[in-house]
Amino acid sequence: MSGGCQAVVSAGCSGVAAAGAPAAAHSDSGPTRKPAALIWFRNDLRLADHEPLHSAAADLQHCLSQGQSPLLLPFYCLDERELAPRAGELPQEGGLDIPQLGPHRLRLLLEACASLRAALRRLGSDLLAAQGRPEALVGRLVALAAAAGSSSMALHHHMSPDAASADLEDAVAAAFEAAAARHGLPCSVHRYWGCTLYHPDDLPFHLWACGSASSGGRPGAAAVAGPAAEQQQQQRGQCSRVNPAAAEAGLLGPLPTDLASVYSAAGGAATAALACWEALGAVRCAALAPACSGRHDARSALPFGMGEEQAVQRLRYYLGLEESDGHSVRSVDQEAPIATYRETRMQPFGVDSSAKLSAFLSLGCLSPRTAHAEVARLAVLEQQQQQQQRRRRGQASSGDAAATAAVAAAAGEAAAAWREPQAGDTWRWLLMHLAIRDFFVFTAVKEGDALEAPGGIRGRAVEWRRDDELFRRWAQGQTGLPFVDACMRELGATGFMSNRGRQNELCLDWRLGLRYFESCLADHEWALNAGNWAYCAGTGSDPRDRRFKTVSQGERYDPEARLIQAWVPQLAALRPAQLAHQPWAAPPAALAAAGVRLGCEPQAATAEAGTERQEQQKQQQLGGWYPLPVVDPASQIGKGPKQKQAARPREQRQQQPQPQK
Ligand SMILES: Cc1cc2nc3c(=O)[nH]c(=O)nc-3n(C[C@H](O)[C@H](O)[C@H](O)COP(=O)(O)OP(=O)(O)OC[C@H]3O[C@@H](n4cnc5c(N)ncnc54)[C@H](O)[C@@H]3O)c2cc1C
């Protein structure tokens, strides 16, 4: 960092303004002073457990108490570079010039920004929003604050674990410093860590190599969940009013809701990338619900609006918690989904089979620590219930209520501390997955770009296969492997795919899949996507072969073929339903009864492409043409006791279908 600025990387909850204040000549003391704080919102679109906001607000609160009139400028910048393809690091891109930020995630992002803006407005503040480059926007904001008479500038933001983000953060800081210097304003930059359950300072090793962009010492350690998060929640009413000049600068206009218009506003590269995305996945952006419309594909596993409130609602619903008179109580209506989480999590179908928190976490509408705090509440309630039961059975003395509650609270908090889950546990399995998320984030920070190298962090010497036509069929859900196709069609139409589904691939260059997922996943996080792809490809930190037998996976985790019925209507009428996993092995009579015809649709029929509406109707009709598998299906069937080949008539077993080209 240069100029009069001082970078401060804060990890604790203590105020940091003093640390960033430069020379005494620029002191902010005195009634005429007007310090300004910019809060750069990124993938942390929430108010609770938001250390940059909390710290800035605490500093400004201090200024207010001294009779000064500080400014708080929370802002979000939709970085246009993300709407275009990544710089082509893959050879023979094969139609992969798709946006990094695809329409599904864009929709949720716009919704999350709208929710955040509404929440800030309720506090008398606002969210300044623009499309462009953050490093250009900070310059404008500094000018705005300077014109409003600001006497000093501070920039607060969360750090991102993405490999590319360190450069962006440095560029934004440099632009901020340069703009402040132009206006003769002292300034400081404050970076925070807030995207994991555990804080890097609490790890038993150093995450950052010395001299990296993010190093510089990380004072203090944030508590994992618990009181810190709650305390911050209570203090969030501290934002001061945003400068009205921001409205004039066009930063308070309505957020876009039409997805395609966002790409076209970003220029030719983004528009072309969107067209490429539509062609590759055979999904039309115009057919997707606009942001904030409240509309969803009826089959979507993510039928939620996006925002902090929705995130907490979803989490509480899943845990079976309700708010009553400001306290968490257990919902009495029905058994909460968390009760069966361990058993259902791998099921690829349904809204409640797994927690469906990933999109909220990826946009930062929910912090992992807040999730942990809610789980701790559940643990306390469980302890209270157990104590009551013991008392009823006369196994515990009936002391005074307050003392009993305190004991239960302590026991609950202790119970929510980390321990490996056992078979009978419920919420502990959820905590374990949040810990797995941390593992991938920290691995990504440590390994950086190396995670995406062809041989990964283990430098495996593998000649990855490229087959653009096969890749296209995979992306469009036309492989002839029904479970894979159902997963891919769900991804294209809704941006979600279950964890099981995400682990099915066709032994092609894994980095193609990585890029396609990046563009399609509504919950995309670079660290998690790259780390998990590397895991599946055997190039990550786990050297074991993780290749799935895709047919067996479907049969095992979706025995009733509900996912296939939802997304592959051609096979939906097959009975018994299990036949949908291996239609090539179904008796001819069953195929005929369900109207299924295997193979390529004859040219004459495809040539008669109808209107869009007719095409949609055709998509929803049961029965019809369904392709034969693009790979030998026998290679996708496991031999283990739980992965038995579906029963099929003897005569059919003789005729293995030939892979279709
Ligand atoms: C190839 C591949 C790519 C993936 N890309 C992403 C991605 O971009 N973003 C993303 O959030 N998840 C990713 N995952 C992980 C996982 O599939 C999703 O987090 C999960 O399916 C989301 O559903 P859920 O919220 O119901 O998760 P649950 O299964 O209920 O788990 C709860 C939370 O734990 C975390 N979690 C669970 N499994 C994993 C995992 N394997 N790795 C990291 N965190 C995990 C997530 O935050 C999740 O929301 C990927 C997995 C694979 C195999």
Automatic annotation (TrEMBL):
Binds 1 FAD per subunit. Keywords: FAD, Flavoprotein. Its cofactor is FAD. PROSITE patterns: PHR_CRY_ALPHA_BETA. It comes from the Eukaryota. Pfam families: DNA_photolyase, FAD_binding_7. Residues 610-661 are annotated as: Disordered. FAD binds at residues 341, 354-358. Residues 35-197 form the Photolyase/cryptochrome alpha/beta domain. Gene3D superfamilies: 1.25.40.80, DNA Cyclobutane Dipyrimidine Photolyase, subunit A, domain 3, HUPs. The record marks 464, 510, 533 as: Electron transfer via tryptophanyl radical. One of its GO terms (biological process) is photoreactive repair. The keyword Flavoprotein applies. GO terms for molecular function: deoxyribodipyrimidine photo-lyase activity; DNA binding; FAD binding. SUPFAM superfamilies: Cryptochrome/photolyase FAD-binding domain, Cryptochrome/photolyase, N-terminal domain. Belongs to the DNA photolyase class-1 family. This is Photolyase/cryptochrome alpha/beta domain-containing protein.
